[in-house]
Design a protein that fits this description.
The complex is a heterodimer.
Chain A lengths: L2 H11 L4 E7 L5 H13 L4 E5 L10 H12 L4 H13 L4 E4 L2 H7 L1 H10 L4 E3 L9 H10 L2 E3 L1 E2 L5 H10 L4 E4 L14 H10 L6 E4 L5 H8 L4 E4 L1 H9 L1 H16 L6
Helix pairs in contact in A: 2-4, 2-12, 6-7, 10-12, 11-12
Chain B lengths: L15 E2 L2 E5 L2 H17 L3 H15 L5 E3 L1 H7 L2 E6 L9 H14 L4 E6 L3 H13 L2 E7 H6 L1 H9 L3 E5 L6 H15 L3 E3 L10 H24 L5 E5 L4 H7 L9 E7 L12 H4 L1 E5 L1 E6 L24 H8 L3 E6 L1 H15 L5 H17 L4 E6 L7 H8 L8
Parallel strand pairs in B: 4-14, 5-6, 5-8, 6-7, 9-10, 9-14, 10-13
Antiparallel strand pairs in B: 1-2, 2-12, 3-4, 11-12
Helix pairs in contact in B: 2-4, 4-5, 4-9, 5-7, 9-10, 13-14
Classes of the chains: A alpha/beta, B alpha/beta.
The complex binds pyridoxal-5'-phosphate.
Protein name (chain B): Tryptophan synthase beta chain
InterPro entries (chain B): Trp_synth_b_CS (IPR006653), Trp_synth_beta (IPR006654), Trp_synth_beta/beta-like (IPR023026), TrpB-like_PALP (IPR001926), TrpB-like_PALP_sf (IPR036052)
Organism (chain B): Lentzea pudingi
């Protein structure tokens, strides 16, 4: 059992979904991102996704694009990512990294996995790497004991869901809507159907993300998924204040506790 | 050899040219690129599709395009020069070849909405044109910098009924237009085809776009044999994403004695760091869906390209070019903005043909290459487009409005 599986098992033992919060490293500053991520952990995130700011984030909407741009123009470097991850682990939090694939390629897939593991990171979520192209990452993640979270989408075929689930470990990421990141008012109707399809193929925990911003939405998703993933809303809160980050995490944590967990 | 005949140079089933290419895209787009690959595989073997494509190339785009000798320009190159006149195609560049093919495929897939990116605006104009012809809805993403330097093409697209969306993120050029087009595609993929304008992106785009442009090389090879009685020593083309180059290269790729020469945008010079010479100065990486050479920093952040030519101002390149470079079948070198503008003026003055600034890079490449071939040498240059769209840039560069002379 991986440590990441433990995170989901612990939430399930409390009959609830896990809360997963996302923030780009280096936003609003390197030290600021450490503070916010620790606050997210303290206020109820079972797991944090530390984003690696990238110059060309094609899966992201305006909020995360702007945060990445701010981090990069302030001089963020890939090596700072490991520092931020270590700050979370040192504070007793659990962190995975979410990153576009090119910076990992450039750093060296094995070296990246090695340095992430050394910082206490548990795995990588790879929004633009499908298992078909992931040979090097499969090897590196095995070598350094990291989990692999690939994504499935409403447009994925049964064959691809099965294949993607087999290639994943820790948890699987279901994108609730077809589209880029960004907070939305309503939970997509495609999400429950997608999760049901995925469960036909795997017993891995399933996290659902893209668009969640309120405790009520978190509760709704917690009704059918194992993890509720919140990104842009945390980025917006981090743009305001640490108190806003804490308040959002607390609201969402209440949300995931107000719906009974599935299965 | 037909335009759609599979070649020994095709990628594997997953779109890999050696270590290059493939699919580095979100899972959400895999179904769409799979559907496209399946549809293209059927269409390329379907006589009805092939005939309709050929009919449009002939009766709408005006193919075959001419092969014109350029003897007075050639005096400056020190060798004989022939021009493949893609500038004479309807809409003014090679882009129409690929666009007509993909627009027909869009119809076959039963999709009604087309999105596209454009740099120089030539691909956007061609796409808007095909959409008007075939009754498709058209949205074109264009970097804000490019909407300014290619304002005439923005007007053309709007006149043709397309919606042009200026992209304000990043470097506000071609790379960012592709980012926004991809974001649109993910959100609207069911009813939308992304009509990518160059031989880059995830499989099957590099293969499919190349095939739609193979007509350039097939015609050029026949024409030069007929007119000059022999194959050229080299075929020269400019390389942005690489579509006009790969299209003409393929006509000669099995002729081992014909050098395939790609000319990259050298901007203010490679030492200045302000250029777009991806194959010459880039490193391996994944951008916009494929492994290829890219311009990036030590952290894998994509760096901004710079070129006086909007159509070449791109930090990536199609994966087949990376492969051809690695195996040594093609060679690539840069020319600067200044060298390209000099060639632009020279062809205009000596031959009465105003080339696109993109194509002027190929002409500048020919001027560099020519002396080593000598008077008996023979070059075919792909004149990928005409320069009408570049008049604003030329007016400023040469001071033409103040009585200046190029
Ligand atoms: C006339 C012309 N030539 C060349 C290019 C570069 O594209 P590619 O390298 O795909 O041929 C463009 C792109 O806009 C163009 O308009």
């Amino acid at each position: 059992m991986s440590t990441l599986s433990d995170v989901f098992a612990a939430a399930k033992a409390e009959s609830r979904a896990a809360l997963i919060g996302y923030l780009p490293a280096g936003f609003p500053t390197i030290e600021g991102s450490k503070d916010h991520l620790r606050s997210m952990v303290e206020s109820g995130c079972d797991l944090v996704e530390v984003g690696l700011p990238f110059s060309d984030p094609v899966m992201d909407g305006p909020t995360i694009q702007a945060a990445a741009e701010q981090a990069l123009s302030a001089g963020f470097r890939v090596r700072d990512l490991f520092d931020v991850v270590a700050a979370v682990s040192d504070a007793g939090g659990r962190a995975v990294v979410m990153t576009y694939w090119n910076p990992v390629l450039r750093y060296g897939v094995d070296a990246f996995a090695r340095d992430l593991a050394a910082a206490g990171g548990l795995g990588i979520i790879t929004p633009d790497l499908v298992p078909d192209e992931a040979e090097d990452w499969m090897a590196a993640s095995e070598a350094h004991g990291l989990d692999r979270t690939f994504l499935v989408a409403p447009s994925s075929t049964e064959e691809r869901i099965a294949m993607t689930a087999r290639a994943s470990s820790g948890f699987l990421y279901a994108t609730a809507v077809m589209g880029v990141t960004g907070a939305r008012d309503v939970v997509s109707s495609a999400a429950p159907a997608l999760v049901a399809r995925v469960r036909e193929h795997t017993t891995l925990p399933i996290g659902v993300g893209l668009g969640v911003r309120s405790g009520a939405q978190a509760a709704e998703i917690a009704g059918f998924a194992d993890g509720v993933i919140v990104g842009s809303a945390f980025v917006s809160a981090a743009g305001e204040s640490d108190a806003a980050v804490r308040a959002l995490a607390a609201d969402l944590a209440k949300g995931v506790r107000s719906a009974p967990a599935t299965v | 050899m037909g335009q759609f005949t599979p070649t020994p140079h095709d990628p594997d089933a997953r779109g890999h040219f050696g270590p290059w290419g493939g699919r580095f895209v979100p899972e959400a787009l895999i179904a769409a690129v799979d559907e496209l690959a399946t549809e293209y595989d059927k269409a390329r073997l379907d006589p009805e599709f092939v005939n309709e494509f050929k009919r449009l190339l002939r009766d709408f785009a005006g193919r075959p395009s001419l092969l014109t000798e350029a003897p007075k320009f050639a005096e400056h190159a020190g060798t004989r020069v022939w021009l493949k006149r893609e500038d004479l195609n309807h809409t003014g560049s090679h882009k129409i070849n690929n666009v007509l093919g993909q627009a027909l495929l869009t119809k076959r897939m039963g999709k009604q909405r087309v999105i596209a990116e454009t740099g120089a605006g030539q691909h956007g104009v061609a796409t808007a044109t095909a959409c008007a012809l075939l009754g498709l809805d058209c949205v074109v993403y264009m970097g804000e910098v490019d909407t300014e330097r290619q304002a005439l093409n923005v007007a053309r697209m709007r006149l043709l009924g397309a919606e042009v969306i200026p992209v304000k993120s990043g470097s506000r050029t071609l790379k960012d237009a592709i980012n926004d087009a991809l974001r649109d595609w993910v959100a609207n993929v069911d009813e939308t085809h992304y009509l990518l304008g160059t031989a880059a992106g995830p499989h099957p785009f590099p293969l499919m776009v190349r095939d739609f442009h193979r007509v350039i090389g097939i015609e050029a090879r026949e024409q030069i044999l007929e007119k000059a009685g022999r194959l050229p020593d080299a075929v020269v083309a400019c390389v942005g994403g690489g579509s006009n180059a790969i299209g003409i290269f393929h006509g000669f790729i099995d002729d081992a004695d014909v050098r395939l020469v790609g000319v990259e945008p050298g901007g203010s010079g490679l030492d200045s760091g302000s250029h777009g010479a991806t194959l010459t100065a880039g490193t391996p990486g994944s951008l916009h869906g494929a492994m290829s050479y890219v311009m990036q920093d030590d952290d894998g952040q994509i760096t901004e390209a710079h070129s006086i030519s909007a159509g070449l101002d791109y930090p990536g390149v199609g994966p087949e070019h990376s492969h051809l470079k690695d195996i040594g079948r093609a060679e690539y070198f840069p020319v600067t903005d200044a060298e390209a503008m000099e060639a632009f003026a020279l062809l205009s003055r000596t031959e009465g043909i105003i080339p696109a600034i993109e194509s002027s890079h190929a002409l500048a490449g020919a001027l560099k290459l020519g002396p080593s071939l000598g008077p008996d040498g023979l070059l075919v240059v792909n004149l990928s487009g005409r320069g009408d769209k570049d008049m604003d840039t030329a007016v400023k560069y040469f001071g033409l409005a103040d009585g200046g002379q190029a």
